[in-house]
Design goal:
The protein has seven helices and four strands; from the N terminus they run αβαβαβαβααα. It has 133 residues and is an alpha/beta fold. The longest helix is centred in the N-terminal third of the chain and has 11 residues.
């Protein structure tokens, strides 16, 4: 959420790629719904792995900057090292940041969910709970 929000304040066109594998296949549509509710103006594309170069090809707009969490920056930089004019920007997670994993761990606590997720997805609570409980 913070990555997309930050990018949306800096750039006219934002592309979000949802990487879906066998483990996350059942949540693909739900994850896209959550993104579209929070960020109706972003482009959403899908991939089966995190290969940045194959993701860039799927983008409907030119990509110049890739935002990533700390754990992904070095890998993404390596993948795009030959792409002049493209960069990876880090959005570090602070100690106060809430992770999706933490929300899922507490999915049966609706108050926790509502305090730690964007209000735009609160109406999806029961659906999300069914999927992750």
């Amino acid at each position: 959420y913070k990555l997309i929000k930050r990018a949306s304040t800096l750039y006219d066109n934002v592309v979000v790629c949802l990487v879906t594998n066998a483990e996350t296949a059942k949540t693909k549509d739900l994850r896209e719904d959550m993104i579209r509710k929070c960020f109706p103006g972003v482009h959403v594309i899908h991939a089966s792995n995190g290969n940045i170069l194959s993701i860039i090809i799927k983008s409907p707009v030119n990509i110049n900057v890739i935002y990533a969490g700390t754990d992904r920056v070095a890998g993404y930089q390596q993948q795009i090292k030959n792409n002049i004019g493209m960069s990876v920007k880090e959005l570090p997670r602070s100690d106060s940041s809430i992770s999706a994993s933490k929300v899922i761990e507490n999915i049966n606590d609706q108050d926790f969910f509502e305090k730690n997720t964007p209000r735009e997805i609160h109406d999806l609570y029961n659906t999300i709970k069914e999927v992750y409980a």
